[in-house]
Specification:
Distance between the termini: 44 Å
Radius of gyration: 20 Å
CATH topology of the largest domain: Rossmann fold
Structural class: alpha/beta
Strand order of the largest sheet: 10-9-8-11-12-14-13
CATH superfamily of the largest domain: Vaccinia Virus protein VP39
Number of domains: 2
Number of helices: 7
CATH architecture of the largest domain: 3-Layer(aba) Sandwich
Length: about 290
Amino acid sequence: MLRGIYLPSLKQVLITKLRGKIPDDLLRYIPSRYPIIGSAVLIHLHPALNSFSDLIGNAILEALGNNVKSVWVKKGKTLGIYRKPMFQCIVGECNPIVIHRELNTLFKLDISKLTFSPGNAGERERLVRMIRRDDVILDMFACCGNLSMPIAVNVKPKCIYAIEINPLAYAFLLENIRLNKVSNIVQPSLMDNHYLELEEIATHVLLGFLPSPDKIQTIRGIKAICPEGGVLHYHTIVRNKYEYSSIITNLLRLVNKQGYRVEKVNVQKIKNMAPKVEHIVIRLNIKR
């Protein structure tokens, strides 16, 4: 199963198919990115193309053949602490519940109500390579297992504590634990991570929330690192080089205030969110 298509060649195929059906001056707005979750394609459509959405959607289904069954258009920003996406199905079999396959892992989710980014596939693969069998992971924003499920499947670490506040996401997390047969590894909790009391237990803490975890959540994550040392994976959005410096400085200060010291800082770009807007992860190796 394809996880996403970003090649200009598909855009050119669509332009060829749609020429004569859409005004020539609008063809340049045909999307360039076609991320796929399970059997659903997600697209961002320029407002000038809204009245041609059915034509575009059907052309995408025809171009991709059996790889996809529906096309969904982004209708607004992701909302709230539950990170609810705003997508609307325009053509095809509009069942929002899909099973996405990636890194030997099954992700069952409702794409109309839960966020899952194919653009984070590289980060999921990096985590699988980075984490070892003797590690203990705390995933403070587990959703349906977006970051930590491939770790459970491919690495089989000692334990993954998976924390999720959204009851719907938690239900799919439980289902994915069952589908991937990792109930002996993943310990799920339905709770607000602001009240997390796990301390000095993890070798890796995943803070995968955008635009960024708040101060209390970050402190909870720091305190969960075992005294012998571990890695804090802090996700955020940056718009310029000055934000990089400010965010890292604030993180270092926060780590020091919790009685830890920083041994190494690594910054990894995950994906572009918009022109000059990047989703990054800051990895801090810290210890008492």
